[in-house]
Amino acid sequence: MVAASLAAGARLPRPSTPPGIPPESARRKTSTLSFGVVCSSNINRSMEAHVVLGNAGLNIESYGTGTQVRLPGKSAMEPRIFKFGTPYEEMYNSMSATPEDEAFFVHNGVLQLCRRGAAVKVAPQRWQDMTSEFVSTHDVVIAFEERIFDAVVEDLQTREPTENFEPIHVICLDTKDNPHEARLQGRVALELCWLLEKSASRGEDLVLEAAAIVDAFQNERMTHTQIHVLYQLCYL
């Protein structure tokens, strides 16, 4: 049974989401920029982007902004709720404790999300609980919903400034919270991040260039699919 192997501490292989081909000018062992990706519970949208960007060689961390990790349960009135910091392995085992639970949560896709999370890092992390010194190491933060974008911007604006007071480019790629849309927007996020990474690797100042890059990206993407993009320059 899969749950038993997780409980035994078996190391899961990192998901092999196709990373896409980076531009020649951006090929490097580590990226110039540090990226953060944020959704509500750090299990679907932000984890999809974490895998895609990480497999492409970008420096990436992922977070949630919710008060708790909320997963779809057997009804809308019965979500499965966990504290941030609860290991993905522990969540997996909790939802596969009986054959009936395991069958249900395999069917709705939640166990697969927990397996992916456990293959990438230990547990969901909450954006607001991260230290300002750590948050300030990110150059670009992508939020996958407008209310999450607002929460990230508000959080950055209410924190005490760090000594270096560095710019952080916050971007919203509005994405429905389901695995299919997360996969699509994970690829979109990668395209945008490579454009920003390419600009930074050429020595360009993103404070001057990022807004134009995001605007041009949105205009180009709108010819293929409807995508709602927001941008805010913050400092921390």
Automatic annotation (TrEMBL):
Q: What is this protein called?
A: RNA polymerase II subunit A C-terminal domain phosphatase SSU72
Q: What is its main location?
A: nucleus
Q: Which GO terms describe its cellular component?
A: nucleus
Which species expresses this protein natively?
Answer: Attheya septentrionalis
Enzyme Commission no? 3.1.3.16
- GO BP annotations listed: mRNA processing
Q: Where is this region: Disordered?
A: 1-28
InterPro entries found in the cross-reference section: RNA_pol_II_suA
